[in-house]
Design a protein that fits this description.
The chain is globular, with a radius of gyration of 20 Å. It folds into two domains: 2-37 and 260-351, Aspartate Aminotransferase, domain 1 (Alpha-Beta Complex), CATH 3.90.1150; 40-258, Type I PLP-dependent aspartate aminotransferase-like (Major domain) (Aspartate Aminotransferase, domain 2), CATH 3.40.640.10. The chain is an alpha/beta fold and 353 residues long. The strands form three sheets. A five-stranded mixed β-sheet has the order 1-11-12-10-9, with helices on one face. Strands 2-8-7-6-5 form a five-stranded mixed β-sheet, with helices on both faces. It has a two-stranded parallel sheet with strand order 3-4. The chain has eleven helices and twelve strands. The protein is 37% helix and 14% strand. Helix 3 (63-73) packs parallel to helix 8 (246-257). The structure holds pyridoxal-5'-phosphate (PLP). Residues 32, 85-87, 111, 151, 155, 181, 183, 207, 209, 215, 220 line the site of pyridoxal-5'-phosphate.
Length: 353
């Protein structure tokens, strides 16, 4: 019955998210969710908002949230744009800025949704290889192009560029938008938001899904100078004027207000990550340096695919990608200390056989 589909839809290759199976006592280290709950103040703020006002449309600009984000990051409120998850913000950005006469530049190994947006919007991508250390090489992003997309830290490798390296790319592309996707920035990289005032071509995208433990709320944001925000608003108001419901806005604002909780959880996850990285190295794994809430690892003696299968039988889920260059790697989300210990002991047993 696919003859009902628009021709463009027949050509799509949709994104495949990590699985969300219903297995009991599952240790779920496959989709980079936060193992800790959001702040209790977030839950309370959503509950307080949950009343008869739900009959009304929410504020189309989500002004309470854009103002809170602006104050938090030290930019003007009209330099902030919010959407229904950063995936939606990214989609609007591809639509708004990258339908140009030249292909966009992005890493060959990165967040796989970027390629999906390219298909959806008819954008060509010129994929730049990672270097031998699996780092994004800034030199690959300086030639004439339709725009640049870099996840920093990159996913699924977990490695971050420095702000100086990001600036090299911004300076080489004064005519094109350089999009920096900072989904994992809170786990150890430096945010480019502080460069917004200096670079009219910089668009920074962030999410509440990972470091703020709000994947279920669907809140993402972009930061950039006014002319870029206007481009995003034009697309948004041609698609869905009310991307964020009032419950989402209330929860996201409360998250920004509970800085102590945010810092404590973030520090805990970083500490757990470093412990697990050391333990996996002791088990013989190669562990890439991570600035994220996941580790990207491979074992010289065991196929990553097989390890993922055997872990799955033990109700531990990790992510394996079949992409050729990274098919011998596993991406392991940092869980609680207890979850990571169960992973470690399962791997120790598996490798002993
Ligand atoms: C998780 C992730 C996103 C999407 O986040 P949402 O805000 O939940 O849509 C975007 N980019 C990267 C690199 C991610 O890992």
């Amino acid at each position: 019955m696919s003859n009902f589909w628009s021709p463009r839809v027949r050509e799509l290759t949709p994104y495949v998210p990590g699985e969300q199976p219903r297995i009991e006592r599952l240790i779920k280290l496959n989709t980079n969710e936060n193992p800790y709950p959001p702040s209790p103040k977030v839950i309370a703020a959503i509950a307080a908002e949950n009343d008869e006002r739900l009959r009304l449309y929410p504020d189309p600009q989500s002004l309470r949230l854009t103002q809170a984000l602006a104050a938090y990051h030290g930019v003007a409120a009209d330099e902030v744009f919010v959407g229904n998850g950063s995936d939606e913000v990214l989609a609007h950005a591809f639509h708004a800025f990258f339908q140009q006469d030249k292909p966009i530049l992005m890493p060959a190994i990165s967040y796989s949704f970027y390629k999906v947006y390219c298909r959806l919007f008819g954008i060509e991508a010129d994929l730049q290889p990672l270097d031998a250390a699996m780092r994004v090489d800034p030199a690959g992003y300086k030639s004439p192009c339709g725009g640049v997309v870099i996840a920093n830290p990159n996913a699924p490798t977990g490695i971050a560029l420095s702000l100086a390296e990001i600036e090299e790319v911004l300076q080489a592309q004064p005519e094109r938008v350089v999009l920096i996707d900072e989904a994992y920035v809170d786990f150890g990289a430096e945010s480019a938001v502080k460069l917004v005032a200096r670079y009219p071509n910089l668009l920074v995208v962030q999410t509440f899904s990972k470091s703020r433990a709000l994947a279920g709320l669907r809140v993402g944001a972009a930061f950039g100078q006014r002319h870029l925000m206007e481009g995003l608003e034009r697309v948004k108001d041609s698609f869905n004027s009310y991307p964020l419901g009032r419950l989402s806005v209330a929860g996201a604002v409360a998250s920004l207000e509970d800085e102590d909780y945010f810092q404590a959880r973030r520090a805990q996850l970083i500490a757990t990550r470093e412990t697990l990285a050391g333990q996996l190295r002791e088990l013989g794994f190669t562990v890439l340096p991570s600035s994220t809430n996941f580790l990207f690892v491979s074992h010289p003696k065991r196929r990553a695919f097989d390890l993922a299968q055997v872990l799955r039988v033990r109700a531990i889920l990790v992510r394996h990608f079949s992409t050729l260059e990274i098919e011998n790697y596993l991406r392991i989300t940092i869980g609680t200390d207890e979850e990571c210990e169960q992973l470690r002991s399962a791997l120790a047993e598996i490798l002993a056989h």
